[in-house]
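Continued from yesterday's entry.
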Amino acid sequence: MAHTYSYRVRDRQGKVISGKLEADNEASVSQRLREMGYFVIGVEEERVSLRKKELHIFKPKVKGKDITVFTRQFATMINAGLPLVKCLNILSEQTESPVLTEIVVDVQHEVEMGRSLSEALAKHPEVFKELYSSMVKAGEIGGVLDDVLLRIATTLESEDEIRRRIKSALTYPVAMFAISILLLIVMLVFVVPTFESMFNDIGAELPFLTKIIMQISHFLVSWMGALVIIAIIVGVVFLRRWLKTPNGRRKLDAFKLKLPVFGSLFHKMSLSRFSRTLGTLVASGVPILQALEITSKTVGNVLVAEAVDSVRSGVKEGDSIARPLGQSPLFPPMVTQMLAIGEETGALDTMLNKVSDFYDSEVSATVESLTSLLEPLMIVFLGVVVGTIVIALYMPIFSLISQFSSQG
């Protein structure tokens, strides 16, 4: 059974280097290091700390921003001529995310063991997706790793920017909706019962709207209301599990594309991701069949992925990319025509990037228009909800005041 050993060696220039290797024993490690031209200073077996492993059972996720910064710094150092292991060592020390630091250290260890960078990155698919490792592999084969890493960083930055815009634009409407629901629940559970007891004490005649509000309040605070809330929670849990199945995911993606206003947004986002991913892979030198396979897995919509898979089947048989895409209703004529021109002129990656830029701008414009539409709608919704309850609660009081006035 192989063990992990930490070593310290001195290279031919007298510089001390430390690292890790897997081997059966210390003698094998020392022999391998000598064969690599190093003078061995010391070799020590690493002890596995169970306590450390327990502390890392629930790891925080690595942020997309951290991966983007890591990739751009990596590209800069490779372009400057630094050795691969040295780059990884520097990155592991200056990366802010502790989880990413641990992963980079493992990648460095794998590279020192003789594995390629793409193979080492592929061991961590939760952080470095298949798109990432495949592009790195193409860069290694073509000898343009720094260019490929810069291209990956640019792609990640573009995706992060789109996500940031969407989150920023939808924050206010979502917050308004949440406040409206919370305010509605507070008024129905706490405020309405107070007014009801007051009306019962004075024997006021309740209008129809007030009675409806009272009935809703009774239902929410009763055991039936609690059962309904529990049933809704259980239903949401089972629905989320079902949506993770292939059939559930397909139904959800089809439903998202058919939504009145948001369907167009989801459609444009899928087209943008398809174009950018495929264009980046092709520009990086990834074979077209492999590029289509990776794109279908990362496009984010099952229906679009199925269309890409049909394109891949056609390309296998010698067909073009544009023709099968033209048969799918999900790809507009502009996209297929630009791809056809790109294939004819040998500038497929350029055309794909142009398509992606176009849909990125379309997504931004759609989000802005949705925001300008949703904000007043949320304000109107909040006003209608609160106003209806207030009117329902004060109608009996107005009725009593008018009765006292007429008697006086």
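--- second protein ---
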Amino acid sequence: MSDSVVIIPTYNEKENIENIIRAVFNLEKIFHILIIDDGSPDGTADIVKRLQQQEFSERLFLVERSGKQGLGTAYICGFRWALERGYDFIFEMDADFSHNPDDLPRLYAACVEQGADLAIGSRYINGMNVVNWPLGRVLMSYYASVYVRFVTGMKIKDTTAGFKCYRRCVLETIELDKIHFKGYAFQIEMKFTAYKCGFKLVEVPIIFINRVLGTSKMNTSIFGEALFGVLRLKWGSFFRKYPQKP
């Protein structure tokens, strides 16, 4: 049994899924993996099922959903699954190797050794550590984080980061049914809510490498949701009482 589960949402990731699963399972620390697949027509889920049956029945798990329902709802589904099964550390990670599996133990250590309640794999804590992104996208992402910091008051350099480790108590305290965003603004909302609940957020420097295989799910509407969503988030916080860290 492991105390840690890595949640990986997928949609059409057949080029990456087996490699990312094997990379996580090759680490010295034992992690379990939960794949949340939104009905990938390319057969991503079939690859996961084969690996389950042939090699990793005790460590690899799959939830299949019908159609694309959004990143946020995939993670909420995964969080509930993990809490029900008693994991103490719950990770978010992309399937496309933009997040390096070798950094998983570093996020874990930030929680276990540095007392973080939420460890964030940060692209911007030490300058800009992004590889193979067009300059325009790097600048958009960086200044989006500056904007979010300004509006929310969080001292987090990488507010849109999606590579994270939560202590169990964070996800038990946050009212998951009140998390509304489904796209990348979901990542901001989760950090902001954890921050408002009084949890300790720690950034761990990582190098983010743009995907080599498969197709990016990023589009301009995602940034639009984040831009206006942050204002709604801050405004709503004036009228909401957040449950506090136990």
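DSSP finds eight helices and nine strands in the chain. The chain has a mean pLDDT of 90. Will compare against the first tomorrow.
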